[in-house]
Amino acid sequence: MPTVGVTDLNDGDFLLDVREDDEWQAGHAEGALHIPISDFVARYGELTEATPQDGRVHVICRSGGRSAQVTMYLVQQGIDAVNVDGGMQVWAAAGRPVITDAGAPGHVL
Fold first, then answer.
1. Rounded to the nearest 10 degrees, how much is the dihedral formed by the CA atoms of 42, 47, 50, 51?
2. Residues 37-69: tens digit of each pLDDT
3. How many CB atoms within 10 Å of residue 21?
4. What is the Cα–Cα distance from 75 to 1, expressed in whole angstroms?
5. What is the pLDDT of residue 52?
6. Given 18, 60, 61, 90, which residue is catalytic?
7. Are 3 and 70 in contact (CB under 8 A)?
8. Is the pLDDT of residue 7 over 90?
9. Is residue 60 a contact partner of residue 32, using CB atoms and an 8 Å limit?
10. Quick check: 51 and 70 in contact, CB under 8 A?
11. How far is CA 97 from CA 16, 50, 74, 75, in A?
12. Could you give the CA distance from residue 21 to residue 54 in angstroms, rounded to a whole number?
């Protein structure tokens, strides 16, 4: 499965967060698109509309398990997708910003 580390991500990379609503509300990466894994198939069109043309989708969850499932699905659909190794736990541990919808500092559930 295609995988990248948090340190391999650049500002402006397209990030898809597949965690559930309570996890997202506690804190997320700024600019990420949020589609919970439980709604993913029903909301797939939102992803295809938001994905930059010829862009890569970096899929993230809490630790990498759910995002791996979504990454495999996207790859099977012919989308250039990669799993973010370690998820939001590694994101936060690496000192990357975690914010709430209001822009305040957040945390990873």
1. -160
2. 999 999 999 999 999 888 899 999 999 999 999
3. 11
4. 9
5. 87
6. 61
7. no
8. yes
9. yes
10. no
11. 16, 22, 26, 28
12. 28
**Rg of the chain on CA atoms, in Å:** 13
pLDDT tier, 28 (very low <50, low <70, confident <90, very high otherwise): very high
Please indicate whether residue 56 is annotated as part of the active site.
Answer: no
pTM, to two decimals? 0.96
In the structure encoding, which two tokens stand for residue 34, read together? 């949020």
Helix, strand or coil, per DSSP, at residue 99: strand
Q: What are the tokens at 87?
A: 């998820």
**Per the structure block, which two tokens stand in for 27?**
């804190």
Question: What percent of the chain shows pLDDT beyond 70?
Answer: 100
Partner residues linked to 34 by β-bridges: 17
Per the structure block, which two tokens stand in for 78?
A: 């012919």
